[in-house]
Amino acid sequence: MTEQKQAAERRQERVGVVTTAKMQKTVVVAVERLVRHGFYRKTIRRTSTFMAHDEFGAKRGDRVRIVETRPTSRHKRWRVAEILERATAEAAAAEA
Questions:
Q1: How far apart are CA 50 and CA 31, in angstroms?
Q2: How far apart are CA 69 and CA 78, in angstroms?
Q3: Helix (H, G, I), strand (E, B) or coil at 9
Q4: pLDDT digits (tens, 9 = 90+) for 25-63
Q5: Could you report the per-residue pLDDT of 68-79, keeping only the tens digit for each?
Q6: CA-closest candidate to residue 68, choices 84, 86, 51
Q7: C-alpha to C-alpha distances, 15 to 37, 60, 68, 96, nearest whole angstrom
Q8: Sorting pLDDT into bands at 50, 70 and 90, what band is 96?
Q9: What is the pTM of this model?
């Protein structure tokens, strides 16, 4: 197996929603995960935000898949692999 293929297999993938798309070729993606509380055992929704390099032109509200990559800048360690679902015009108008 080649080194490139092994490195590609180790890369993490996450699916999230674009929250900010006001920068050039950079988007902020919010990824939600469910965590069980240690004592109370209630499931809690936690959100992590990642800055990702975007060559596809994702807009706010789009559902995207991001892939871990080498550091592109001070804060960017992820890139947008694909846009899974575009935001609807009604949802974008409701958020604004």
A1: 8
A2: 5
A3: helix
A4: 999 999 999 999 999 999 999 999 999 999 999 999 999
A5: 999 999 999 999
A6: 51
A7: 23, 14, 12, 23
A8: low
A9: 0.83
Longest C-alpha distance within the chain, in Å? 49
User: Which residues, 6 or more positions from 17, have their beta carbon under 8 angstroms from its beta carbon?
Assistant: 29, 30, 61, 62, 63, 64
End-to-end CA distance of the chain: 49
**Number of Cβ atoms within 10 Å of the Cβ of 70:** 8
In 3D space, the residue among 8, 2, 16 whose CA is nearest the CA of residue 60 turns out to be 16
For residue 49 the two structure tokens come to: 């935000």
Residue ranges of domains in the chain, CATH in brackets: 15-95 (2.40.50.140)
Length of the chain: 96
* Residues pairing with 35 in the sheet: 44
